[in-house]
User: Which sequence fits this backbone?
């Protein structure tokens, strides 16, 4: 760790997590109640978050209930995860497991719910139980990702955007329709999807395709920065197909495009070449920072300034998540 070279508000101590990344580690004062500390430093934390993108907070006396309360103090409004793609479950009010995927599955960097018409501007993670081995949460500067992409890749996304496709069927061993929407009632699902700009196509009694559209690059509404903001790498089969084969060896091999759990295409339906996705994955790997966890740590992320992912792990690990400060795509302009 290095000494911080920026002025911090009185009462906050922080360090840069590494020399190569903008992310900070803030030490809470020992013995100060979590709610008092959070109220006292809320505005300062928000301000440094807008500059640094992600802040790890260490030293508060937290459990999952207190983490939920802390999230509410920092960002009063939470987002409902109905319709979200990640397998997770609710553990407290507005507090979810970070993912229910098996430990051997890593998650490529992504901006939470950026495939949708509404997403959380702030994501909070909490370490309820530190990983025994591996299991870092990765964070990656979305401005740097925008800057480092070759012009030809960037321009293609700027022109064409992304189409996100999901397929639900008995052949797909992933999150079910019921788990995604809390119901299997077609009318309710169609109504929800219409309201949220999700195209639905029922392909059978329990087979459903969802399609959503979004840009790959946006401007941050507060800082004005151009940011690489999407879930392309995570959704593209170039990333997950190989993982599926290793982790779910019994899963049937996709025979048609409708057998793919999830897919990311250009917005006009054109295929995004595997080579483009591999380039983006390599850029994430080069740019991202591994946040290592101690029990009780919080990671406070501006979801448009930093993407996140996770490394595989073994043994126990419990990282919880809260998604806060909803923003509608219709309220900001695409870049
Ligand atoms: Fe996520």
Assistant:
């Amino acid at each position: 760790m290095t000494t911080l070279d920026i002025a911090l508000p009185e009462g906050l101590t922080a360090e840069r997590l590494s020399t190569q990344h903008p992310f900070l580690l803030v030490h809470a004062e020992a013995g100060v109640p979590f709610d008092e500390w959070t109220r006292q430093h809320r505005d300062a934390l928000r301000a440094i978050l807008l500059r640094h993108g992600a802040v790890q907070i260490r030293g508060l006396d937290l459990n999952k209930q207190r983490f939920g309360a802390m999230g509410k103090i920092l960002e009063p409004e939470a987002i409902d995860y109905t319709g979200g793609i990640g397998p997770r479950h609710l553990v407290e009010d507005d507090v979810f497991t970070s993912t229910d995927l098996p430990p051997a599955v890593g998650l490529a960097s992504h901006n939470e719910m950026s495939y949708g018409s509404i997403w959380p501007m702030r994501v909070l993670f909490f370490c309820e139980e530190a990983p025994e081995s591996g299991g870092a949460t990765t964070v990656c500067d979305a401005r740097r990702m925008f800057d480092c992409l070759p012009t030809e890749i960037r321009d293609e996304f700027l022109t064409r955007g992304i189409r996100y496709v999901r397929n639900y069927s008995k052949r797909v061993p992933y999150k079910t329709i019921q788990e995604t929407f809390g119901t299997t009632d077609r009318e309710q699902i169609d109504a929800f999807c219409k309201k949220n700009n999700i195209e639905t196509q029922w392909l059978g009694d329990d087979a459903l395709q969802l399609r959503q559209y979004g840009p790959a690059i946006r401007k941050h509404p507060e800082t004005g920065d151009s940011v690489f903001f999407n879930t392309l790498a995570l959704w593209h089969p170039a990333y997950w197909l190989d993982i599926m084969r290793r982790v779910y060896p019994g899963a049937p091999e996709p025979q048609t495009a409708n057998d793919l759990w999830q897919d990311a295409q250009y917005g006009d339906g054109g295929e995004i070449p595997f080579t483009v996705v591999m380039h983006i994955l390599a850029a994430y790997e080069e740019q991202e920072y591994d946040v290592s966890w101690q029990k009780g740590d919080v990671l406070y992320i501006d979801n448009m300034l930093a993407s996140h992912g996770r490394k595989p792990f073994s043994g126990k690990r419990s990282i919880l998540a809260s998604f806060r400060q909803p923003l509608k795509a219709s309220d900001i302009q695409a870049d």
Summary: The CA atoms of residues 114 and 230 lie 5 Å apart.
